Amino acid sequence: MVNVVIVDFRGFDTMGEITVLSIAGLGVYGLVRLARRERHELRTFAPIRPERLRRRRRTS
User: Fold this and answer.
1) Cα 48 to chain center, whole Å?
2) Which sequence spans correspond to the domains of the chain?
3) pTM of the predicted model, to two decimals?
């Protein structure tokens, strides 16, 4: 009888550990995706049109 209780407890304990590790893994995956997206957004930019360059030049 005691053996059955111990095995049941260990099963629930293992299931809890797997749940915690899965949630932590999903969190890390989300952070990695976010970092990759931000890095990609920094590299992509709209080309500057010549008429916009003329307006921004300072006259001294």
Assistant:
1) 31
2) 1-34
3) 0.56
